[in-house]
Inverse folding.
């Protein structure tokens, strides 16, 4: 899989994370805050081999800025 940087969260300091990447497989990779709350994870019913991260609303507009 090849990834292309799209955006870092400009409102998150000091390291400007979360981060969005576009893949060559027609998908997105999101680097974000780990969801560690066991009750939230239980409600999500995340299968083995998958995970979930949280990103702020201010990062969502970057999903459509890469032109694909």
């Amino acid at each position: 899989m090849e990834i292309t940087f799209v955006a870092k969260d400009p409102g998150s300091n000091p390291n400007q994370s979360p981060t969005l990447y576009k893949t060559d497989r027609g998908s997105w990779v999101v680097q974000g805050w780990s969801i560690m709350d066991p009750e939230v994870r239980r409600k999500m019913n995340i299968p083995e081999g998958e995970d979930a991260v949280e990103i702020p609303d201010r990062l969502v507009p970057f999903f459509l800025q890469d032109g694909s």
